[in-house]
# Entry
Amino acid sequence: MVMEFFRGGSQSELVEIEATLVRMLRDGHLVFTTATDALFGGGKSKETRREVRMTDKGINEAQQDVRRALLVHAAVNQAELPLVLQYASIVKDAERIGDYSKNLYDLVKFGANFEGAPDQAELERYRDAVANLILEAANVFDAKDAVAAQRLIGKANGFLDDYDDHVKAAYRSTGETSDAVARALYFRFLKRTTAHVMNVLTSLVQPLDRLDYYDEAKEDR
Amino acid sequence: MNSSHLPPGVSPIVAPLKRTLPPAARTVLVVVLLYLFLVGVKLLGTGVTGLGGGTAGGLFDGITNPIAALSVGILATVLVQSSSVTTATIVGLVAAGQLPIEVAVPMVMGANIGTSVTNTLVSLAHARRTDEFRLALSAATMHDFFNVAAVLILLPLELATGFLQKTAAWLSALLPGGADATFNSPIKGAVGWGSNQFERVIEIFVSSGRALGIALIITGIVIIFLTLTYITKNMRVLIAARIERSLNAVLAKSGLVGIAVGIVVTVAVQSSSITTSILVPIVASGVLLVRNAYPITLGANVGTTVTAILAALAIGEVAGMTIALVHLLFNVVAILILYPWNKIRYIPVRLAEGLAAIAATRKWIAVAYTVIVFIAIPIVGIVILS
# Structure
């Protein structure tokens, strides 16, 4: 314990915090794909349920670790308060990816199954887009690449309208109610997951006060 | 929904705060400041000696009562917000033969109490949120209660037996050449050279004996105060990551590990106030338990004694080293008496939690406590008993 003082040189503890955040995003990708795989033919199983639950639990624990570390960092380095607030905001977004993945798996528990559906290809296309976005966001955040973050935000922003259109379409649907509800929730959860990933990405291109604001018109900011 | 209106801003993650000085340069700066600190202590001693036998001692003639000396130690430390400044000054005065060691012993005990005012003041910043304030005040005042308890036990014992002073004198005599009034210190010569340069410069402006003595004392005290302030500031930046890592590792731990972390961190930053003040917001947030912060605080008490020992090494007088070691022994013995036994270990913590529970809803009690303990009682002690 005391030897911690002499180990690791003068490298900031923020490096450890950043590594945990990247790990949370990668775990977010894992839990998202596990949960959505179940929607596309995997079905519900004890193993899948356990994996979704355990991965999300790990993400939640990592969030608490980051918060504790941020508090100690703030107490020791008061000058780095903006950075601490920035990370405190990001860690919440990273954690929410796990939550929405759990919500997506809940759809399977309720009986939703998109395998063989006429719109399966389209549903899967959006699932793949979000999965890739999470993974790319983890890599971009790891590299602290502001240019790539800007590009990803632009790309993800384009999907948000699509998700809303699909929710509206589900609302107006005259087909099976259960199918409409499953699709409305599916696209709603994809939108929320995308938004949280975008929030993480804005931290690389925006100062603290403008964190999470990526979709307002200039006059509304 | 068009992202083209999104200009790249300045994210602190991508463009983090730049340190003004690279670590290597800051390390050199700390070494220079440390050398100047030792020169300051030497100048103080030379100045006091230059005032002439008995004259400087006259400053403390009225303070023969140990409670008055204790009060001087508390008040002086509260005023300069640093026990290191007080104890280094005391070492300089004792080494110069201008402050009797019997008077200096209660003074260093007072310095121990006085230094805990800083984290108590830090805890007041949490006053607007009741639960947070209760924890913050507990974390801060457990240090006060421990230090007061240590004085209540050890001061009468010391007055009756002189065991701290005798043990410290015995240890000082073990130093190379320590059987005489002076011992062979490796840094004494280097510090003496620097001190002489300052004296030569001051002599250009002030040549008479008494005025020169006063000028040297003032210069010494100013140098001690400024160098310790900047040593602490720079060390805090230099080892911030190490402090953080140690605290993260010890968050859920208690006991000896905490004491060791407290010692190491405080020796490194040369300030127990920094160590104990860092703990206050962490405890206030509930991340660190008051009982887990307690041993770190005790370790800080021990760690802060290194400054006076360094000062004594620079001067090379056995008497100076003796009082510096009294400071160390006092803190070590206090821990050995109050910490190992389960039944009494947490008495200071329980008292602090009791005070905090009352003061959490009646904030004025916390303010009154601070003013009474750290200002009113010492002033009354000095006025009545001097």
Summary: The CA atoms of residues 139 and 154 of chain A lie 17 Å apart.
